[in-house]
Amino acid sequence: MAKHGLKELSASNMEALAARFRALGETSRLSIIQALQDGEKCVSELVLLTGLSQPNVSRHLNVLQTAGLIG
Fold first, then answer.
1. What pTM does this model have?
2. Is 57 in contact with 32 (CB distance < 8 Å)?
3. Which pick of 2, 44, 50, 53 has the fewest CB atoms within 10 Å?
4. Burial, 25: exposed, middle or buried (Cβ in 10 Å; 0-12, 13-18, 19+)?
């Protein structure tokens, strides 16, 4: 069985992984991910579920998408 660890990641893969961790380091983004657990939702639904403003939700969705955490 192969052993996988950070030492086996290329520099670009490490950067992508770090970007994901940075994206997950914000409680608002974690709230959005939690709200998306049951499936896709429009921004207005996420606003209601998270209590965040529409511009804030849109900004956080962009960060999550850029980090590859949502589609």
1. 0.81
2. yes
3. 2
4. exposed
